[in-house]
Amino acid sequence: MKDDQPKQNPSALHVRKGVDGGHDGLPGTRSRGVDADGASGSSSPRRRQLSVQEYVDGVRSGDRVLLARAITLIESGSAEHRDLASEVLTALLPHRRPSVRVGITGVPGAGKSTLIESLGGALTADGHKVAVTAVDPSSSVTGGSILGDKTRMEKLAADPNAFIRPSPSGGTLGGVARKTRETVLLFEAAGYDVILVETVGVGQSEVLVRSMVDFFLLVLIAGAGDDLQGIKKGVVEIADAILINKADGAGTQAARRARAEFEHVLHYLRPATEGWRTRAFNTSARTGEGVEEFWQVVQKYVAVTRKSGIFAARRAEQERQWVRSLVQEGLDELFRNHPAIRDTLPALEEQVARGELPATAAAARLLAAFREGLKD
Ligand SMILES: Nc1nc2c(ncn2[C@@H]2O[C@H](COP(=O)(O)OP(=O)(O)OP(=O)(O)O)[C@@H](O)[C@H]2O)c(=O)[nH]1
Ligand SMILES: [Mg+2]
């Protein structure tokens, strides 16, 4: 759950030496050694709850400790924190810096993290502020496989103009996605103008990340067969660029061939974004070759889609969709937890499973019971 503490043993993160005790995360305290987000397991009982204004001022001033605490607040499941988080987000919304949000997916080990390190470093050197997070649905089970170890991003993790936050853990994929979306808003309010969201190559999470970013990148490697490397065609179809990475040393030729093959395949696919042709490129995240050129592609994309209005239209649609899915989730929860449903649902489902009752009849009965129940 740590965000900006690169080279420490995870178990050491919560250790507070006496000398660190005075840092309470208030604006102005920037010690890297402090457990910035008390809620990550061993929260300090003495930690004072901050006010909305303190969160807002802290995030806006770019204070890393306060940003980390604000993210922890929005990740919290407690109802009290939800209300506070909502107020903080509402207050911060008008103060966001315009940004480019890039989603990055790909087969395990393709070099996503190495690419983020290389690209992120180049961007901060160029005056950008880069925030990195991840959507990793397995993180609640495994403790987070992506961004979990930051050895691939050592330099970026120590870069004062970069901020790395691992995937929120716990809950459903939808829950993780909600937290990530809100985290992105906090990043922007804190002045980050390039947001990178890494995800693992497993179906649903890609679609979710696509729905929260402007540009979606697929990172692949050559030599894993012609079967699109277990990456479903659907993922290729939502990508705005494909990188065949590890185009270096002995892998150069194979990477070039794979690039040509993908260029060919892409020719026959409908582009992910209207008015934009998805293309394949070679990179070496390790040497940095092709990485700058890749960023030029992103910039071109932003220019083209801004001009056509697609950029703004997609963001607006993403926001609308987000509202709808939140409402849907809320309704579903309301429905399932309603006394009229909670007690009858399992039995009815069983009856349907046994073939004794049509699904339509069961659903109609449940909805009628729910409607009746709402009147009480
Ligand atoms: N030769 C070469 N190796 C690379 C390159 N990029 C990454 N690697 C190596 O590939 C391995 C995996 O790199 P990561 O950056 O962790 O890959 P990832 O896609 O983030 O992996 P997961 O997060 O585990 O899915 C590491 O050993 C890297 O050093 C590259 O461009 N060339
Ligand atoms: Mg990784």
Terminal Cα separation, in Å?
43 Å
Strand arrangement across the biggest beta sheet: 3-2-4-1-5-6-7
Taken in chain order, the helices and strands follow as HHHEHEHHEHEHEHEHEHHHHH
Largest sheet: 7 strands, parallel
Number of helices: 15
Secondary structure class reads alpha/beta
CATH superfamily assignment of the largest domain? P-loop containing nucleotide triphosphate hydrolases
Query: How many strands in all?
Result: 7
Strand content: 5-15%
| CATH uppermost class of the largest domain | Alpha Beta
Silhouette: globular
CATH topology of the largest domain: Rossmann fold
Supply the number of structural domains: 3
Estimate the mean pLDDT confidence: 83
**Whole-angstrom Rg:** 23 Å
Name the CATH architecture of the largest domain. 3-Layer(aba) Sandwich
Q: Assign a percent range to the helix content.
A: 40-55%
- Stretches where pLDDT is under 50 for at least 5 consecutive residues are 1-43
| Unique ligands | guanosine-5'-triphosphate, magnesium ion
Can you give me a brief rundown of this structure?
This protein is α/β, with parallel strands linked by helices. The protein is built from 15 helices and seven strands.
Question: Could you characterize what this model shows?
Answer:
The longest helix is centred in the C-terminal third of the chain and has 28 residues, at about 310-335. The chain is about 50% helix and about 10% strand. Residues about 1-45 have low confidence and may be disordered. The protein has helices spanning about 50-60, 65-75, 80-90, 110-125, 140, 155-160, 175-190, 205-210, 235, 250-265, 290-310, 310-335, 340, 345-355, 360-375; strands at about 100-105, 130-135, 160-165, 195-200, 215-220, 240-245, 280. With about 375 residues, it is an alpha/beta fold. A seven-stranded parallel β-sheet has the order 3-2-4-1-5-6-7, sandwiched between helices.
